[in-house]
Amino acid sequence: MSDRPPLVAIVGRSNVGKSALFNRLTRSNRALVEDLPGTTRDRNYGAFEWRGRHVRVVDTGGLLGPEEDPFNPLVRAGVDRALREADAALFLVDAVTGLTAGDEEVADILRRVGIPVILVATKSDVARARDSLPDLYALGFGEAHFVSALHGQGVGDLMDGILDVVGGARTGDRFEGVRVAIVGRPNVGKSSLVNAILGEERTLVSEIPGTTRDTIDTPFAFEGHSMLLVDTAGIRRRGRIGRGVERHSVQRAQHAIDRADVVFLVIDREEAITAQDMHIAGYAVDQAKGLVLVVNKWDLSEPGTDRHQFAKSLDARYRFAPWAPIHFTSALRGEGIADLLQAAVHIAEVRGRRVQTSELNRVIHRATAQHAPPSAGRRRLKILYATQADVNPPTFVVFVNEPALVHFSYRRFLENTIREAFDFEGTAIRLLLRRRSEDRFEVGA
């Protein structure tokens, strides 16, 4: 058996429970689940382990008629690509409503693909579900597995059936590399940027805001570096976040930032300075991530537009993250993509950097000698000792006599001192202040 886990595609018409089954198999809630046709549009990859074997699964968009969903041709293309990649397919039908013309259409597609097909009757916790058994046999895919993804009924038997067909790999598909999250407001070109990076139409690209709803993880290699790309749904202002799918999309985007090493904040060149972009950047900074401001669609700028002046205007607004580099790209033309990925690799390496304690304290001592710590009345702040506690993100602990005496501006001064001395550009760093008795030696004493 191959060391790479086989891939199983989950396919079916819209609203038959594909995403619910994906979440149950992968023991996650990565795929959006709503009682609305067409909720899933992109492919969503995950994996599960069963009886010591590992299998990858891909959730696909539900197939609808063109009159029902304007994205249907794009969804169909994504389903076709998933089936070309897959070693087998799970064909989901709704056991309660029975077979429909849409199911017959999916069955025809699967017959032409020529890969093994496992028939799955979903929502089988309902008593009348097995009434559809004769119709299911008529599809010609053998005996169906009756499952309830909601309650977990029949899922173990289904996973046994999957292993019988594809085998599974002994080792998991664990990723160790640079994790990059692509975030931003809706319709700023995130999916186009993903496709430009990967060189294929991995995610849907449309002029209609809100096309992407799931977070899509895609591993790839760049100049010998393993990377994982996450394309996320656009984050809207809190007051404009609707119930249901869009609210879940925002949560997925924030979760993607939480899992990332480096965040690409894609900015609209025509509306580059917005409170919402700063909110997203602020969230990434609060989570101590690497951050790159990506001005996409730069090829559409007016002739003679000065990118240096444009960058200065961004710097003036993103003062809370002056260390975040600005990159100009054109996903359409592929311009600036290599430089952007090189920046991500560099930032990830910086985030893993360790500083010697002795050198760190020498730097802090020189800085405090030039810029004396503040005082409050008769109390004066004393910097006693500093050490690096962790990496990814770089975390420093500074022991002081009284943490309450450290003003925000002086904390920022210490952060900037460490950043400039040890080249931590491109990433947030964490600075923790801890009380320590003054009978300990001071920095430089």
- Our count of domains comes out at 3
Determine Rg (CA atoms, Å).
Answer: 26 Å
Tell me the total number of β-strands: 17
Instruction: Give, in spatial order, the strands making up the sheet with the most strands.
Output: 2-3-1-4-5-6
> How can the largest sheet be summarized?
6 strands, mixed
Identify the CATH homologous superfamily of the largest domain: P-loop containing nucleotide triphosphate hydrolases
H/E topology pattern: EHEEHEHEHEHEHEEHEHEHEHHEEEEHE
Low-pLDDT regions: 30-41, 65-71, 204-214, 233-246, 438-442
| Arithmetic mean pLDDT | 79
The amount of beta strand, in percent, is 15-25%
* Euclidean distance between termini CA atoms: 63 Å
Task: Give a brief rundown of this model.
The chain has helices spanning 18-26, 72-85, 101-113, 133-137, 155-166, 190-198, 245-259, 275-286, 307-317, 337-351, 357-370, 408-422, and strands at 7-11, 44-50, 53-59, 88-94, 117-122, 145-146, 178-183, 216-222, 225-231, 262-268, 290-296, 326-328, 375-376, 379-380, 383-390, 395-400, 430-435. Helix 11 crosses helix 12. It has three domains: 7-166, P-loop containing nucleotide triphosphate hydrolases (Rossmann fold); 178-351, Rossmann fold; 357-435, K homology (KH) domain (GMP Synthetase, Chain A, domain 3), CATH 3.30.300.
Question: SSE layout and pairings?
Answer:
Layout: E1 7-11, H1 18-26, E2 44-50, E3 53-59, H2 72-85, E4 88-94, H3 101-113, E5 117-122, H4 133-137, E6 145-146, H5 155-166, E7 178-183, H6 190-198, E8 216-222, E9 225-231, H7 245-259, E10 262-268, H8 275-286, E11 290-296, H9 307-317, E12 326-328, H10 337-351, H11 357-370, E13 375-376, E14 379-380, E15 383-390, E16 395-400, H12 408-422, E17 430-435
Parallel strand pairs: 1-3, 1-4, 4-5, 5-6, 7-9, 7-10, 10-11, 11-12, 16-17
Antiparallel strand pairs: 2-3, 8-9, 13-14, 15-16
Helix pairs in contact: 11-12
